Amino acid sequence: MAKRTLTGTTLDTIVSLAKRRGFVFQSSEIYGGLSSVWDYGPVGVELKRNVKDAWWKSMVRERDDVVGIDASILMHPDVWVASGHLDSFTDPLVECQECHRRFRQDQIEGDTCPDCGGAFGEPRQFNLMFKTFMGPVEDSSATVYLRPETAQAMFVNFENVQTSSRKKIPFGIAQIGKSFRNEITPGNFTFRTREFEQMEMEFFCEPGTDDDWHDYWMNFSMDWFKKFGIRGEKLMLRVHDADELPHYSKASADVEYEFPWGWGELETISNRTDFDLKAHAEKSGKDLSYFDDQKKERYVPFVVEPAMGADRSALAFLLDAYDEEGEGKDMRVVLRFHPDIAPFQVAVLPLSKKDTLSPTARRVYDLLLANFNAQYDDTQSIGRRYRRQDEIGTPLCVTVDFDTLDDDSVTIRNRDTMEQVRVPIDNLEAAIREQLNTMRADCQG
Ligand code: GAP
């Protein structure tokens, strides 16, 4: 595994690196920002896209028992009645009688306001779903909700997907998309926000096989994070106590990561039983049972759900990759991302901006662009450019120098070892693939 000297870093360090290098900016910053809302910059968008692509590849493209969908954020309001979200998707809210700040009751330690010491009013249940209106009339019959989870689209499309894809149980439906929750206390950078992206998969199975599938998907989830470089000692699987289970779940466990403020959830793997399909069948009047033609019996499938946050996972990858080497002005900040998670896999750095080098450097860049996510950087000194690429975690830098014009060779510099090797341009693609493969193997958490 790539050597990391640091066991932990502060969130402030990451927030400032994220802004400086174009990972994450505060939303609407020129207007003073919108609290707890974040925008991904040119580097961050690549990181988050890679996280989502890695998940989609492992979950959908590399398996023949999971298919994908991309459903709308707005759904029929009855979906949220049937799913229980309208009644039960609430947090207990208390308001200070003095300063009128509001808190989640289960997140405060004590009976008085942590800000001003004032007394709290009676707690009330606050529904986390955002409401809006569909069409030009703003009355209750036009109320629709921004989905608080992507999962419900998999349940209401169960029959459409099963019949059109001809999948037999057990099989899963996966989706990546935005969800919205009007969290009472968002915070910790992109960890808890009101708009976020989820990567969820509903795995439909025969009743009685659900416990085994729950075990299978818990192991799969832990392995997935390790495969893409999160250190094993920073991960744990925490089984929910009975009193914290979501309203739909028979058993749940969280994959947790050790964030700078403590352990926090990246993913929940739940055994949702037949709760959702039965609830939608009852509310819609549509039969959502399945005929098992091998067993010659009809049943309502049980569902096991791995539900992961894309933003939280991207944050965990960022924090876990952070490392510092050396001290003082010689200190090197390096993000030791797995090559499939790194925003860019390779950067092409011409030694000088001179016209004599640029055409060759551009030719090398074009060659690499076809196969890798590559960046071209010809500003500032070569040393500074290496540092910049280290700070965004680019595994390999390819330097084009004046000798290249004579020997048609370039230098590959490795992010982790800082070793440099000279290779002919003709062999460059193969040499890069080989180094990336070695780094992939080294990165396993
Ligand atoms: N369909 C089940 C479900 O939504 P969840 O545990 O509420 O389960 C799944 O959410 C994942 O979505 C969480 O593990 C987390 O990574 C992410 N998530 C949930 N709320 C979030 C928020 N307010 N901000 C960022 N990510 C969030």
Automatic annotation (TrEMBL):
InterPro entries attached to this UniProt entry: aa-tRNA-synt_IIb, aa-tRNA-synth_II, aa-tRNA-synth_II/BPL/LPL, Anticodon-bd, Anticodon-bd_dom_sf, Gly-tRNA_synthase/POLG2, Gly_tRNA_ligase_bac, GlyRS-like_core
Sorted UniProt keywords: Aminoacyl-tRNA synthetase, ATP-binding, Cytoplasm, Ligase, Nucleotide-binding, Protein biosynthesis
Record SUPFAM superfamilies: Class II aaRS ABD-related, Class II aaRS and biotin synthetases
GO cellular component: cytosol; extracellular exosome; microvesicle
Top-level lineage group: Bacteria
Domain Aminoacyl-transfer RNA synthetases class-II family profile: 12-339
Residues annotated to bind ATP: 181-183, 191-196, 265-266, 309-312
Documented EC number(s): 6.1.1.14
Binding site for substrate: 104, 149, 196-200, 305-309
Gene3D superfamilies assigned to the protein according to its UniProt record, in alphabetical order: Anticodon-binding domain, Bira Bifunctional Protein, Domain 2
Reported function: Catalyzes the attachment of glycine to tRNA(Gly).
Assembly, per entry: Homodimer.
Protein name: Glycine--tRNA ligase
Organism for this UniProt entry: Candidatus Lucifugimonas marina
Gene designation: glyQS
